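Service request form, structural biology core

Requester: graduate student, group of Dr. S.
Request type: structure prediction, single chain
Budget code: on file
Notes: please return the result as structure tokens.

Sequence provided:
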Amino acid sequence: MSVTAPRKTLTSEATPVRVRMLNVRQAAEYLGATVWFVRTISWEKRLPAVKFGNRLLFDVRDLDRFIEQAKAEAA
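Core staff response, request fulfilled:
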């Protein structure tokens, strides 16, 4: 009978993944708006979106830019 060495276990601290892309519902929640508002500004090309299969995804940085632009226009 052979004796096998104990298996080494991989230990790594969980690194939180920072979400960059949000779906329509998440983008609406992020903006404090409705899903239809997000869809509308995307269709009007006021907010860039990435088509991933049949899903629309929004970059958090683009959402931040949209907010900053809206603030500048309101001032």
